[in-house]
Structure formats: C-alpha cells, structure tokens
Design brief:
Blueprint lengths: L10 H6 L18 E3 L9 E3 L1 H10 L4 E7 L5 H16 L5 E5 L1 H7 L7 E5 L3 E3 L1 H12 L5 E7 L4 H13 L4 E5 L8 H7 L8 E4 L2 H10 L3 E5 L15 E7 L7 H5 L3 E3 L12 H16 L5
Helix pairs in contact: 2-3, 6-7, 6-10
Amino acid sequence: MARQQRNRPRQAENEAGQADANRQGPRGRKRQAGAIKADAGGDSAAYVYGIHAVASLLSHRPEAILRLCVRNDKPSQKLAELLGQIDEAVKASNGQLQVSRVDGPVLDDMVPGVHQGVVAEVRPLQEQGESALDELLDRWNDSASPLRLLVLDGVTDPHNLGACLRSACAAGVAAVIMPKDRSASLTAVARKVAVGAAELVPVIRVTNLARTLGLIQQYGVWIAGADGEAENSIFQLKLPDRVAFVLGSEGRGMRRLTRESCDQLFSIPMPGAIESLNVSVACGVTLFESVRQSLPIRP
C-alpha cells in the first residue's frame, strides 16, 4: 500500500524541547526508563475487583496479588467457580497467596464500584515507558507478523480507557500508546471496565505523541487517524498488515500535530441523527474493521 504523501510540520520537533537532541532514530536513539508508575488515583488504585478481572489477574499475573478478599456469604455460581481457581492458585503458591473472607460492607469500603464479592489487593501496575515501545517495534521489525497498535490522544475518562483496552485486547492489539499528560490513568475503575484486558495489553506512555508517531512510521507502520471530517470512511480503506489507529477525545478529537502526523484520515459513517460516537465505540468499530480485513477470504 503506497504511503500517502503529507507535509509533516516541523513544530513537532520544536515542541519536544531539548530532549529531541538525544533521539537518534529507531535503532540508535537513547533509551528512556522502561516503566513509569501508574497514577495511584487514590487508595482504590491498589485493588482489582470483579470476577472477570480477578480471574484474569490469577491467570496472567498471580505474582502481583498481595491478598484476596472474598465475601463470606453464600457465593453466586460465578463466584463459586472463581473460588475454585483461587484454591488452585493458593496451592500453586505453596500457601503464599493470602485469602481473607470478609463481610460485604468491608468490600464496599475498599473499592468504588461493583466488586461482585471479590477484591484483589495488588502491587500497583506499572505502565510502560518509551523504551518499551522501542523494544516492541524492534521485535516486530525482525518478524513478518502483522502489527496492530492503538493510539489514544486526549482520552481522559477511565471508563473509556478501560473499554478501549477491552476492545484492543479482543482485536489482538500489541500495545496501547498514550501521552503522559492529559490522559486517563490505569485506575481501579479502568481495570474493572477492561475486564482483565489491562493485565494483557501493554499501556505505553510517551512524552511527545507526534514524535512517537514519526518513530512508528520509520518502522513501516501506517498511521491512520479517526477524523469526522475525513472524506474516506474506515470501510473504504484497504488497511495494511502493520497499522496504528489514532483516536482522539470524543469532544475535541485529535490534536492538530497528531492529525498532521497521520498518513491517512478516516471517518465512521453515521447515517442516523447522532453525529458522533463515544471514543470506546469508535475504537471497537475501527479495530474490528481491521480484523475483518485480515481474515482469509472464503470461496
């Protein structure tokens, strides 16, 4: 797929400040810290709650669990199934995994949302830094595998972040990329909405999004940005095997430099009375159009 020619503004480099002097291209540039701590978001950020989210945590990051708190009344069928998984995890940990049976009001006080009778106290999740993106791109550059990335510009609602993570995980996205500033953090609410996806899809924070998109392009990844004014719809594009989708906030959309860094802009057709979609819905539509195009054509 031929790359659409665009005049890339030099302002992106100016906005990056003095740090740009140390950037040396996809292979040789200086590496930053591999991870930055997630915003605590209050005491509740140290907890993962809800049956599906805790089940995913047990399957993929059991070492992160400090303590499990389970409601001590008769469990629902789904919670009973989770208790079986918890028992297996306790045995596998040689008794190191602590489980406490507590009253429902205790769980109510621990977290702000619907906990479904189970709360896991965890070591705070770490969001990845820019060197993690370097390493990811290096790995994919050395393989022939397709690559799908999701870039969120200005998404500040943790509910929307959680929903986007869930769709990203289901669509096989390799990483979700967000700017450090003016973006939602991986709070307990975001992880709850993500239903375990926050434990599976890396969230990478970057200092300058326009500069990061330029780096991604150097690896041959096509940058496609959602814009309600774009002439071509997502359903008219022939999407390449390696693509990064950029979505902005529901109200303001992408910032100007982000938009100008894209190779292609696309819209989502809406023939009805409503002229905009929640960013998490737009995310699902976009990612699964990419999935649809990647499926083999049946005779």
